[in-house]
Amino acid sequence: MSTYQHINSSTQKIWSLLEEVTDPEVPVLSVIDLGVIRDVKLNTTPDGEESIEVVITPTYSGCPAMDVIRMSIRMVLLQHGYKNVQIKTILSPAWTTDWMTQAGKEKLKDYGIAPPNPKQQVCNTQLFAEDEAVQCPHCGSYNTRRISEFGSTACKAQYQCNACHEPFDYFKCH
Amino acid sequence: MNQSIIDYTLHLADNALIISQRNSEWCGHGPVLEQDIAITNISLDLIGQARSLYQYAAELINNSPAMSGSSPSIGGGQGEASEDTLAYLRDARAFKNCLLTELPNGDWAQTILRQFFFSTYQYLLYQQLQQSADGTLAAIAEKSLKEVTYHVRWSSEWVIRLGDGTEESRNRMLNAIDELWMYTGEMFIPVAYESDVATEGIGVDVTVLKDQWMQRVNEIFAEATLPSPSQNAWAQTGGKEGVHTEHLGYILAELQFMQRAYPNSEW
After folding, report:
1. What domains can be seen in chain B, in order of their start residue?
2. Which of A3, A39, B22, B81 could form a disulfide with B58 if both were Cys (CB 3.0 to 4.6 A apart)?
C-alpha cells in the first residue's frame, strides 16, 4: 500500500519521467517534445492511495504509435513505482505541431527529418497550393520540392532537395 | 433519442471504416509508390476516425439499459459492446454506411472520384459537426477535419489531373462518373435517425450540405474539363438503413474473417 512512500510525487517528477517515453516511429522525440501530453494530475483514492492521471492527445486519429505510447507511459511509471496509472485520451483541442518543443524540432533536424516550419502553413483545400519552403536537413538548402503530401507515417510528407538531391521526410505542419 | 445517437454514430463510423477498408485494397498495388502511400495513409486516417466513433458508440450502447444484453444489431450478443465487436461482429444489415463507400475500387479513376465525392461530403459534414451539442462528436469532428482537409485537396487535384489529362485518363474519369454518380445523392437524403439528431442539434442536417457539395464538385469538374452531372439525377438509397449492394457482404467476409473463424483472437 505505502511501499513507495519514498517517492516524492510531485507532478514535476512525473513530467520528467515522461521525458523517457519516446515516439516509437521517431525515437529521438520524447512524448513531451511531441506535445502529446496535455496534463498530469495526482489524485488520491478514497483508501488513501495516490493515483496518477496522464492526459494525452493523438497526433493523427489513426496513428498506430499512440497505442505503443500509452503502453510505454504505463511501463515507465510502473518501473518507478507508480502502480495506479490512468491514461486518458482527449481529442479537443486537436493536436497541432505548434505544441512541439523547440528542443524537439532541433532533435528532428539532427535525425534527418525536417522539422515543421515555425510559421504554420496548415493544409487548406486550396488546390495545387505552393509548396512550403522547407529546409533540407542534410545540406541546409531551401531549394527543395515536395514529392508527396503523404509519407512514411501520417505526420510526414516526402520532399527532395534540389541542391544535394537527397530525399527527406518533412514533419508537416498540422 | 438515445437509439438515434447510437445509430448516427455507427453511421459515421461505418462510412469511415468501409471506405477505409476499400482504399486499403490498394496497399502494394498503387499506380506509383507515392500514391500507394497516399491512399493507404488516407485509409489509416479513416480507420482512426472510425475507431474513435466506434469507441463512443460502444460507450453509448453499454450505458443504455435498453441496449445491453443480446441485441443482434450490436453484434456478439455476449458481454459488452466494444469498438471491435461493432466492427467485426455485426452483419451487413446492421451496417449503416452510404452505398458510395462500399463500391468496388475499379480503376484508379474510380477510386479517386469516390474519394473526392466522399471527402468533400465528409469535410462539409465535420465542419458542421464541430458545433454539435454532443461534446464527444464535436471533438471527433474537430480532430478529423484536419485530416480530411488533406484528403479533399489530394483527391481534388487528382480529379483535375485525370480529367484534364490524356484521352485515356479522361475516358476513365467519364466512366467513373457514370459508375458513381447515382450513389452520391444518398449522402444528402436523411434517414430517420439523422433527422432526429439534427433536430436536437447533435447531428448535421445533410440536406443543407448538398448545395455546397455540388458547388465544389462543379468547380473541380470545370477545372478538370469534365461535364457537370445533373443535380436531379435519380439516387440509389438504402445503405444508411442497412440495405446494401451485393459488395458489402464480400468486404465484411474479408474484414471479419479472423474474428469469425477464431473468436476473440488477438495479435
Report:
1. 2-261 (1.20.1260.10)
2. B81
